[in-house]
From TrEMBL, chain A:
GO biological process: lipid A biosynthetic process
Domain named Carrier: residues: 4-87
Species, as recorded: Govanella unica
GO cellular component: cytosol; membrane
UniProt keyword 4Fe-4S present: no
Pfam families with a match to the protein in the record: PP-binding
PANTHER family registered for this protein in UniProt: ACYL CARRIER PROTEIN, CARRIER DOMAIN-CONTAINING PROTEIN
Protein name: Acyl carrier protein
Length: 87, 421
């Protein structure tokens, strides 16, 4: 993990999540922190896991599948990732 | 709030689907004629989706062994392995398995699902890491959910991706890499040599699920790990009796010196009733046949090549190179449903598989072959696939979507494009 990513704000991480979610946004809807994976984006658990893998590789961190049950909305992803980065 | 409201989207999907002839979720075999035929909806139907790879469900030795055990030991054990549920037959089965695999230890579970659930959830504790292939079977995902370990998923069949993810983990932690020999949906084989080499370079333990590869790969049918010559590198092999062995049950074999302690701590082993004596006896007979009948395996592969080549010549997009599983890829749900029910009407039963059981959002008409199929039956399957595929316009459609999948690398569909390449 690069040392400087520890200082990333939740806003900066969310901006990155927005970029990484783009290929999954098949319906081209406007995405906010409240956007839901299942009801808004029609994504199943496999797609959410693919998104997590993209985040792992972007920041070179481990994002365990164990956090999946807590991720329903996109804002929860950036918050969880920030928590992981800060250890 | 009705507890069932959470299933409204599933009910809506069910209502939208075209169920012209039978519902894949509630289909009933009215009468089973043989390993390869049954009466379904009043019609004689060729079964091309049973995972009965060696056709042992009707082998006379297996049936005789089951009948004898039924007469001598009764219909069930009515108890867990650790209470009253271990009979001499269970011991014999475990000894037979250990001899078949050439391992020190073998432990039998009541289903293959429970074998994965038990092994994965018990081996890995809260300080440990489990690394699973993205396309893992539900029993592997559920085993991860049941335990307390940190779960990491790596890209399907990708040794470099596994390596990258192992590098991020503290090498002092306990780590288990879980892969399958042959993936059941698309029928693609794992590059076990590369994956196991990466795992071992990091000092991680390896568990290989050979559910669909036992009896199918390897000189004596031990699976992909035997075929690739890396049995000494693999710590745990999990398998099932409900495919090539032709009955029900699961197992794990291993040479780990402390393996037997699992009989004291593995909850899916401890807290369920043991297999009934007749099942244990037929499984034992089947494993003995498997170890000594290369001709059955050869017939299976002849059949597999015939179907795979035939479907491919017709122009269908298939999920993987030749194996006893040939999965025809269809891109839309309604098309897959129509195809499945029209095939059934034409007298051919295959499996209809939906996401998330399938990778990359594809719908599959999944065929699995048996050594018991005749060349004539496979010709009929191919004829019906051609007729229905043409009538529904699926043949030209799969050509188009195949081209689409190849141009979409970088998108979520790339796993399948890679598998079909």
């Amino acid at each position: 993990m690069q040392a400087d990513i520890k200082n990333l704000s939740e806003e900066e991480i969310f901006a990155e999540v927005l970029k990484l979610i783009a290929p999954f946004n098949k319906k081209n809807i406007a995405i906010t922190r409240d956007t839901s994976f299942s009801s808004d984006l029609d994504l199943d658990s496999l797609a959410v896991m693919d998104l997590l893998a993209a985040i792992e590789d972007h920041y070179d961190i481990t994002v365990p599948l164990n956090i999946l049950p807590d991720l329903e909305r996109l804002g929860q992803v950036s918050a969880a990732v920030q928590k992981i980065i800060q250890g | 709030m009705d507890l069932f409201d959470k299933f409204n989207s599933v009910l809506a999907m069910k209502a939208r689907l075209p169920f012209e002839d039978g519902n894949p979720f509630t289909l009933c075999m009215d009468e089973v004629i043989s390993q390869t035929e049954a009466i379904i909806n009043g019609r004689r139907t060729i079964l091309a989706g049973t995972n009965n790879y060696l056709g042992l469900t009707f082998h006379p030795d297996c049936i005789a062994a089951a009948k004898a055990a039924l007469d001598s030991d009764g219909t069930g054990t009515t108890g867990s392995r650790v209470l009253n549920g271990t009979y001499s037959g269970h011991r014999t089965l475990e000894k037979t398995l250990a001899e078949f695999y050439g391992t020190e230890h073998a432990m039998v579970f009541s289903t293959g699902y429970q074998a994965n659930l038990g092994m994965i959830s018990t081996l890995c504790g809260s300080d440990d890491f489990i690394l699973i292939d993205a396309d893992s079977h539900a029993s592997i995902y559920d085993g991860c959910k049941m335990g307390n370990a940190t779960v990491i998923r790596f890209k399907h069949n990708d040794a470099a991706d596994l390596d990258k993810r192992l590098k991020r983990i503290d090498p002092k932690a306990g780590r288990l890499v879980v892969i399958e020999g042959l993936y059941s949906m698309l029928g693609d084989k794992a590059p076990v040599k590369e994956l196991v080499a990466v795992a071992k370079a990091h000092g991680a333990a390896v568990l290989v699920d050979e559910a669909h590869s036992m009896g199918v790969f390897g000189a004596t049918g031990r699976g992909v790990v035997q075929e690739e010559g890396i049995e000494d590198q693999v710590d745990f092999i999990v398998g099932t009796f409900s495919k090539s062995v032709g009955t029900i049950g699961g197992f794990c074999v291993s040479n780990h010196p402390k393996f037997e302690v699992l009989r004291y701590v593995c909850r899916p082993y401890l807290f369920t009733a043991s297999l009934p004596p007749s099942v244990v006896a037929s499984a034992t007979a089947a494993i003995r046949i498997m170890g000594s009948s290369a001709d059955i395996k050869d017939k299976l592969w002849d059949n597999a090549r015939q179907l795979h080549q035939g479907l491919s010549d017709l122009g269908f997009e298939l999920g993987a190179p030749v194996s006893p599983i040939s999965a025809v890829i269809v891109r839309d749900q309604a098309g897959a449903m129509h195809f499945w029910s029209q095939l059934l009407k034409a007298g051919v039963y295959v499996n209809l598989a939906f996401p998330p059981a399938t990778p990359a959002g594809v719908y599959l008409l999944r065929c699995s072959l048996s050594a018991a199929h005749t060349a004539e039956q496979i010709e009929i399957m191919l004829e019906k696939f051609a007729e229905v595929g043409a009538a529904l316009g699926i043949l030209s459609e799969t050509h188009l979507s195949g081209a689409d999948a190849r141009t979409s690398s970088g998108q979520p569909g790339q796993g399948v494009a890679a598998a079909t390449a």
